[in-house]
Specification:
Radius of gyration: 23 Å
Distance between the termini: 22 Å
Number of helices: 9
Structural class: mainly alpha
Length: about 280
């Protein structure tokens, strides 16, 4: 079979094969995400009193801030763990041979795993949040009953058609750019763990986390030192190009770093195929 050219059909078959071979592991991961979502929603149900007087002047769910923060943390954590397991089967020689013998090229293998761990994982997380939030709203409505001055009960997934709920979290000047930076930032963090999974199949999450944290601290320190050295005792106009476009600069830096990590992952996987073939 000629695998030099990219084929969407082979990619779809690889994705279906991986889902079939690892369905128990993937179902366990989905159950873990559902459990975490239920814990977050249960805590909101027990911790927030919707009939308290200090919530009367609010038009949104008092737990919305808490839920946005903790569901975002959960998404980043599960996304990072999932990305670090993309190439976990490369940890053994048998797994490397099994991956090598698949009738597909490196691009198809990466895309098939990416469909599962990068695209489907947030969808599954959203479904888990949808179930947990629906249950929370039902139980909270029963607890509130006919109380006239109770704060509204709003599920977190309502932010997709009521973005004004997120006014405390989204930059009002550039809301679309801010949301885009958040999404690209999520994929950037995942790309680091994907690269780590290709480099260190064993204990990938821990090693990738240590290296990623160290590089982030180093980059922050060097940037702060350069900014202090170059800008000390100097005055810059608030209307400078950099200050006006700083968010765009960071957005494109995120995109470039994400593309670099995925390119290095592709090269590493090709290198693994060559090494396994020679052995």
């Amino acid at each position: 079979m000629n695998t030099d050219n990219f084929s969407f059909r082979r990619t779809a078959r690889l994705t279906a094969l991986y889902l079939s071979e690892n369905r128990r592991f993937l179902l366990l991961g989905a159950g873990t995400m559902l459990g975490a979502s239920l814990i977050i929603s249960l805590f909101c149900l027990l911790a927030f009193n919707y009939t308290a007087s200090y919530y009367y002047d609010r038009n949104v769910d008092p737990a919305i801030d808490f839920m946005v923060i903790w569901y975002s943390i959960a998404l980043f954590v599960f996304g990072s763990v999932g990305a670090s397991m993309m190439f976990s089967d490369l940890r053994t020689k048998q797994g490397r041979i099994h991956t090598l013998m698949m009738p597909a090229n490196s691009s198809e293998k990466i895309i098939s795993r990416g469909i599962i761990f990068i695209i489907l994982l947030p969808v599954v997380m959203y479904l888990c949040m949808f179930i947990a939030e629906s249950l929370r709203c039902v139980f909270e409505s029963v607890i509130i009953g006919d109380h006239e001055n109770a704060a509204p009960v709003t599920p977190l997934y309502a932010i997709f058609w009521h973005p004004e709920i997120m006014k405390d979290f989204i930059n009002k000047t550039h809301p679309v750019l801010f949301a885009s930076m958040w999404v690209v930032g999520y994929f950037l963090v995942q790309s680091f763990f994907v690269l780590g999974s290709a480099i260190w199949p064993k204990s990938s999450f821990i090693k990738s986390f240590v290296v990623f944290t160290g590089l982030t601290a180093l980059f922050t320190g060097v940037t702060a030192w350069c900014a202090y050295t170059l800008c000390n005792d100097k005055y810059f106009d608030n209307t400078s190009w950099l200050q006006q476009n700083i968010m765009y600069v960071f957005f494109w830096l995120e995109c470039a770093a994400c593309l670099y990590n995925w390119t290095m992952t592709w090269l590493r996987l090709r290198e693994t195929d060559v090494i396994t073939t020679k052995r």
